[in-house]
Amino acid sequence: MSARSPAARTRGPAALAARALREEFGRPSIWPQLGLGLLGFGLSAAFWAQHAAWCLALSLWAGCALSQCLLKALSLHADASLQRHGWALALLLCALAVLSGAAAGWQLDLQLRSQLLDLPRWAQGEPLARAGLHLGFVGLLLGLPLLQRSRRLAGEQDLEQERDRVRAELQLLQAQIEPHFLFNTLATLRGLVRQQSSLALPLLDRTTAFLEAVLPEVRTAASTLGRELHIVEQYLAIMALRLGPRLRYRIEVAPELHALPLPPLLLQPLVENAIVHGIEPWEGGGELLLQATRSNTHLRLRVYNSGQPLQARSPQAGHGLALVNLRQRLHALYGHAAEFQLQPLTDDRAGTEALLQLPLGLTTPADS
Length: 368
What we know:
two-stranded antiparallel ribbon, rod-shaped, alpha+beta, five-stranded mixed β-sheet
């Protein structure tokens, strides 16, 4: 699996608030902005200092700059303090920084209008209204971006938590496959050893090769069609030793398709299901055909067997552990973008086919 993203390490409101503060106000670009602001107001003072608009703009900018500096100082210590005291402290300190900047800007506004414009205090307008103007300006200019960043980070965190849940679900489903392989294969080997069959040693060799191919796939998050075909070939070699001439199989997959991505252990259960429930119980055995084709958007896998028809099986056919597990994994990986069908053939060629259609180029939670 890939390394965790920064969002994956953000857990809880306190950590989220700390990260939002750090990303919004911890960047170094605040100092060039403040320097340019001071330079602009200094150059324009000779021409506009006697205008009320200039005095208001300077006081608003000064209040906002002070709040930014306070928030930047808060962001430098956000991780340690907020982890100890929680998100309520972050909200309180942010509010104090905004109030401090707004109050300082308001006082500067009153002083400038009184000294530069030579207006008495009673002629400067309602003080509370101007205080509200400063508070609203600083709050919106600094608080709105902080709120938007916090919401974006919260959305990223929710998405990462959902991916973690899906990863855990997929690991659990894949882990269920491991004992299924081991028990079935070892039971077969045990029976041959009891019979002192000459097939026991070749089967043991094939079983070793099969397990060497399978067990790494049980714990991996991604695979390819070529690697999954290798597992299928090892499995078919074991079943060919068991069933002898009753099993005939062909694999028709173009070499250029081997590099296509395929989740681990999706293909082998289809082949096993075809043999165990189709060919093995059928008196004359049967043929198994595995095919893979691709379009611009999908990979299509087909497993056909000419053994026991689907209609002749129990009513629970197609709903065993292996196929239930496969359907659950498909839903967790692709949602409704993947299709799986197990159906009897209706043409002159008797048998059952399993069709699996997977989207290409779709990033799954396990790959993220």
